Amino acid sequence: MKVHYSTALAALLYSRAALAHPGHDHGALAGLLHPLTGLDHVLAMLAVGLWGAQLGGRAQWLLPAGFVACLALGGALGMAGMALPMVEAGILASVLLLGALIGFAVRLPLLPSLAIVGVFALFHGFAHGIEMPVAGNGALYALGFVAASAALHCAGLLLGRFALPQGWLRASGAAISLAGAWLAFA
Fold first, then answer.
1. Residues in contact with 102: Cβ distance below 8 Å, sequence separation at least 6, in sequence order
2. Distance in angstroms (rounded) separating the CA atoms of residues 47 and 126
3. Integer Cα distance of 128 and 126 in angstroms
4. Cα Rg of the chain (Å, integer)
5. In sequence order, which residues have a C-beta less than 8 Å from that of residue 82 and are 6 or more positions away?
6. Which pLDDT score, from 0 to 100, does residue 24 have?
7. What integer pLDDT is reported at residue 27 of this predicted model?
8. Contact 97, 116 (CB under 8 A)
9. In this structure, are residues 162 and 113 in contact, taking their beta carbons and an 8 Å threshold?
10. Residues 131-140: contacts with CB within 8 Å, 24+ apart?
11. Is this prediction's pTM over 0.90?
12. pLDDT mean by block of 10 residues, the chain; 186 residues
């Protein structure tokens, strides 16, 4: 199956504008849409799948699974009103570093790789948790943002495994990292 990458990228970028207006519900749909409304979240989630695909073996499944587990923990901490310093910096760092790891084809052992994505997942989950709608159902909202994040990981994994040649995979990582730098100054 041939994928037209510019069409997919345009749809991804335009989806943010389509989803950014109010009127979403306060449960699973709100949680499902939340990770898709920020370019930083979308890029980091895709990057986890791409890096897992690049590392291969057990990493292709454990990196996304570990991210999702730590994302849920971070979301629970945010919903509980806990404090986590430098959340936005951590999210931005996730885009920059994950993109760079892919771009430079860094092959770390599994445990350090899991630690990296786990720490970044705490920041992303915390941000989702503290941004839960006031009248929201926490469990349904969490189910939504966890499902959307997992879907983005799967999309990155599938792109990395089946759609992108190795050179394009590395170029995708570089593009993610550059987008992170742009987000830092936007």
1. 47, 50, 51, 54, 169, 170, 172, 173, 174, 176
2. 19
3. 5
4. 16
5. 126
6. 45
7. 78
8. yes
9. no
10. 131/34, 131/78, 132/30, 132/31, 132/78, 132/79, 133/26, 133/30, 135/26, 136/26, 136/27, 136/30, 136/31, 137/26, 137/27, 137/28, 138/79, 140/27, 140/28, 140/31
11. no
12. 44 39 62 87 97 97 98 95 96 98 97 98 95 80 93 96 88 96 91
What's the CA gap between 15 and 118, in Å, rounded? 27
CB atoms within 10 A of CB 85: 6
Residue type present at position 162: F
Residue with tokens 């993610």: 176
Q: What is the DSSP string of 23-54?
A: ---SSHHHHHHGGGG-HHHHHHHHHHHHHHHH
Give DSSP secondary structure letters for 114-180.
HHHHHHHHHHHHHHHHHTS-TT--HHHHHHHHHHHHHHHHHHHHHIIIIIS-HHHHHHHHHHHHHHH
Give the per-residue pLDDT at 25.
Answer: 59
- Tokens representing 163 are 């759609």
4 CB neighbour count, 10 Å cutoff: 8
